[in-house]
Amino acid sequence: MTVTPEKVRLLVEKEMPLIGEMRRYLHAHPELSFEEKNTAEYISAWLSRWGIGHKTRVAGYGITGLLQGRSAGAKVVALRADMDALPIYEKNEVPYKSLNEGVMHACGHDVHMACLLGALKVLNEIRETWAGRIKFIFQPAEEKLPGGAKAMIEAGVLENPRPDVMIAQHVYPELEAGKAGFRPGKYMASGDEINLYVTGRGGHAAIASQFDNTVLALAEIIAATEQAVNSRSVPESPTILSFGKVVADGAHNIIPGRVHAHGTFRAFDEKWRQEAHRIIASEAEKIAAKHGCKAETVIDKGYPPVINDVAVTRVLMKAAGELLGEEQVKPLDIRMTVEDFGYYSQRVPSCFYRIGVANKKKGITAGLHTPAFDIDERSLLAGTALLVWNALVLLDER
Q1: pLDDT beneath 70: ranges in the chain
Q2: 62: burial class by Cβ within 10 Å (0-12, 13-18, 19+)?
């Protein structure tokens, strides 16, 4: 490898006007999960303009392709960016404000796409300086179950050739633009939707002998299952069961015959995940029976945990220090949020890291998934350069 971190920064700085233009266009034209038709056409048009071969309509509106250096080399590195936006009304008054009312790139996927496009342009232009192959993946539907990652894997995106290593980056408003954050090992949790239904004889609340107390049964089930599951949480492998919606549509003096609750379960260990599912269903059944009721537990299994390969992550932390400066590279805490990149990390040694996008002096601090979310566009330089440099470092056979 002959390209230096300084050279990478210069190459990316040259492309910054275009990268910024692409990000602003994508931000102004967001599309929801599984609906990214125009987004895919925009990405494909740029790749075609640069002579980068690719395949469209993978698992819906996904795009994938392969860049080759001066030779096929021994390694394949995969780079992934997600494409979908959220059903949020944007409150920012900026020239690139969403033109699709009620839809917004409030999670920064516009940044992810623009950075990957910029990185591919640079890598393609310097392909005679590196050996190996870079598989790129523009993935739809990260924000909505069952998730685009699962569908793209089923469509064969991890085959022909199979990546040796895979990386993705995500915006992070808790860090200032120009910084990056990493965490080896367990990083983001699995996420399952828990649905509890309790049925019994409804009736007049004043005549206890003529009804089954479905409301009390559900309340006890919530308390018991949260205690049983959350008591197993430990710092190195935290777990959370929490119910955010409870429906008992009776009245002051009416006990309904059917009540239900909906919650979320997060974990990091797959064996414990399955055991927790069993505990929740068993406790619900047992407690409902005590009240003369029946319980049904429906669990919609969501994304697996994101587990960063320790060796790969340490290599990229060192690489980020070389590119950005060691003081710009920060450790990350475990997060109980979810990300469908976990499907990739189950199959390929991977690293999912963060790029800072905040600028406190300019008031750019809004959180992800909020109507005021925005970025300091300096983050596009760091994000694009990181993808280029990380790919080159991982391909290096030294």
Answers
A1: 1, 397-398
A2: buried
CB 186 within 8 A of CB 268: yes
* Distance from C-alpha of 229 to C-alpha of 242, rounded to nearest angstrom: 10
CA gap 339, 351 in Å, rounded:
13
Our answer to whether residue 93 is catalytic in this structure is: no
Alpha helices in 55-125 (DSSP H): 109-125
Given 271, 300, 329, which residue is the final one in a domain? Answer: 300
Contacts of 216 by beta carbon, 8 Å cutoff, 6+ apart:
291
Instruction: Please state, as a whole number, how many other Cβ atoms lie within 10 Å of the Cβ of residue 55.
Output: 13
Of the residues 15, 90, 142, 143, which is catalytic? Answer: 142
User: Long-range pairs for 156-159 at CB < 8 Å and ≥24 separation?
Assistant: 157/58, 157/59, 157/62, 157/64, 158/78, 158/344, 158/347, 158/348
Structural domain of residue 18, as residue ranges?
5-188+307-395
Burial tier of 129 (Cβ tally within 10 Å: 0-12, 13-18, 19+): middle
Question: In CATH, what number is assigned to the domain containing residue 383?
Answer: 3.40.630.10
Distances (CA, A) of 376 to 22, 86, 325: 15, 20, 19
In 3D space, the residue among 283, 294, 315 whose CA is nearest the CA of residue 391 turns out to be 315
The structure's pTM equals 0.94
pLDDT at 398: 44
Nearest to 243 by CA among 258, 225, 255, 257: 225
Task: Residue count of the chain, please give it.
Answer: 398
Crossing angle of the two packed helices 378-395 and 5-28, in degrees rounded to 10: 130
SS3 of the chain: helix, strand, coil, percent, to 5: 35, 25, 35
Catalytic residue flag (residue 142): yes
Catalytic residue among 35, 82, 84, 176: 84
Residue type, 40: A
Query: 285, 300, 315: which is the final residue of a domain?
Result: 300
Q: Do both 312 and 267 map to the same domain?
A: no
Helix (H) or strand (E) holding 73: none
Which residue, chain included where needed, has tokens 């009721």? Answer: 293
Tens of pLDDT along 78-110? 999 999 999 999 999 999 999 999 999 999 999
